Predict the structure.
Amino acid sequence: MGSTMVAILRSGDSAILANIGDSRAYLMRNHEAQHSTMNQISEDHTYQYLVAQANEVPKLPEKLTRFLDGRKDGRSADLTPLQLRSGDRVLLCSDGLSSYVPEELFRAILNTSNSPSQTADNLIDAALEHGGRDNVTVCVIDITG
C-alpha cells in the first residue's frame, strides 16, 4: 500500500514544490488576466508518463512508479524550486481531479476572480460531475503582494 503527495513550502517569493506519485501541481501566472498561462509544474511518477516521454515504448498499465510506502530504500519526492509572483495561482491536487476533469475546464475554473476556497469547491464539483470515482483533494493558493 502506498500514497502520493504534493506539497509546497513558501518563503516570500521563493518556494519549493515536493511531489511523489500522481498528485499534481499547476502554476497559473496572472490568473485573472485574459492571457494567463498555466503549466503543470510537477512530474507524474507513472508508467503512462514514461510512455509519453519515449514514443517507442508499448502501452503500459497506468500504475505508479514511485510512491510513499514507509520504506527506507530511498523513495523520495521530487523537489522543484519556484519563483512566485503576485498574481500567481497555485493548484495542488490529487488524481481525483486531474484524471477526470479536462485540463481546459479546470484551467477556466482557475482563471477567475473567485476566492481560493470557492475555486477549490468549483473544481471538486467539476470532478464529481465528470464521473470522479477517486478521492478529490484540491488546494488553491493565491500569491498576493
About this structure: The mean pLDDT is 83. The longest strand covers residues 5-11.
